[in-house]
Amino acid sequence: MSSTANGKNGTWRNWGGNVSARPARQVTPASVDELAAAVRRAAEDGLRVKAVGAGHSFTSIAATDGVLIRPQLLTGIRGIDRDAMTVTVEAGTPLKRLNMALAREGLSLTNMGDIMEQTVSGATSTGTHGTGRDSGSIAAQIRGLELVTADGSVLSCSEKENSEVFAAARLGLGALGIVTAITFAVEPVFLLTAREEPMPFDRVLADFEELWAENEHFEFYWFPHTGSTNTKRNNRSAGPEKPVPQLKSWLEDEFLSNGVFQVANWVGRAVPATIPAIAQISSKALSARSYTDIPYKVFTSPRRVRFVEMEYAVPRTAVVDTLRELRAMVDRSGLRVSFPVEVRTAPADDITLSTASGRDTAYIAVHMFQGTPYQRYFTAAERIFTAHEGRPHWGKVHTRDAEYFSRVYPRFGEFTALRDRLDPDRRFQNDYLRRVLGA
User: Fold this and answer.
1) Which of 63-72, 145-154, 207-216, 241-250 has the lowest mean pLDDT?
2) CA within 20 to 30 Å of 178's CA: 108, 147, 164, 207, which one?
3) Residues linked to residue 341 through DSSP beta bridges, in sequence order
4) Residue 2 in contact with residue 122, Cβ under 8 Å?
5) Under 8 Å between Cβ of 257 and 286
6) CA-to-CA distance for 140 and 150, rounded, in angstroms?
7) In this structure, is the dihedral angle defined by the CA atoms of residues 68, 69, 73 and 77, taken in order, positive or negative?
8) Which residue spans within 33-140 are E strands per DSSP?
9) What is the separation of C-alpha 91 from the centre of its chain, rounded to a whole number of angstroms?
10) How far is the first Cα of the chain from the last one, in angstroms, to the nearest whole number?
11) Is the model's pTM score more than 0.90?
């Protein structure tokens, strides 16, 4: 599932297949010193530098025609501090490996996103998140980080050390330097009971505040062209463990959610007129179920059906209106949408460019099957999201620029001023950062 390391003629492609780049060279440093040397050498050669993780962003945030840094040798746990309840991990470590290693140590992150193929630095630098009433994104769980800056020096950042850099670099878009290690807050591993059940769209909207308030982690998927949703409620549990039986797990998570769903999307791509009927079937395919397991086995699930995605963060108070408008738009547009719309929440955090910075947030994600034209759907959805001062996910498709972000992020100027200080020559610039942060 990782991006192609060296495709034809050294071309790099992202997971979604919608972004490619041809870097002048690719470097796979085995240590922080080697990475810092690669940054200094790029400066001597007048080349820009970008680090790329697993290529899970749908934007060109990691694309470069300069030096592409691949962190796959910078992986593993540097240390666990049981007094402070933190773990320090190398930046190229996949979330999957971190979650499994922590579980073996009897530890866990508090919250996580729904896929775990990304590297820890890629996931946090773009603002990857799950859903939570009280617990925020993966970046919100960072307690310290190590950053190689444009002049090749190594900065340690935390609330106590280089605190103004820490405030921004937890979600730094790759604009402030290259993250080489991250210290996360962890807690003793716990159990979650998941309750998944279908619920009518209108009922979810009517009861949204209640569903949000009564559950630690609430999310739902709405199937366009239907009045149906699938809701997920994850709450801490005293146990006992009751994982999904293996056959049932394969049937529901692999066969229905990946296998049959893939075929349904192929049919829908070939014959768009069939999509509403397929959506009716899809929305009823997954029956209610409940299970209890350790966090990463509940929060995350395999995603083998490839897609392109746009996701916006709107104020939580605006989510119901936004969803009503989205549904009305789909109904009158003649669009055929085969992928469900995903809705999650996060509490306000204090990270400069976090999508939840300073406000309680709801996320609305729209997807299109890979290879299906998505522009008309995404453009219409984006018009609705931006009317509610939406903030797009940094790693997902959007058309916003610095002028827009300076309006929806009160601390935008704080971030760009810090970038001027840390990277005056724009060593880490690319076309995407030029657009979203300004030149």
Assistant:
1) 241-250
2) 108
3) 222
4) no
5) yes
6) 25
7) negative
8) 49-51, 67-69, 77-81, 86-90, 107-108
9) 16
10) 33
11) yes
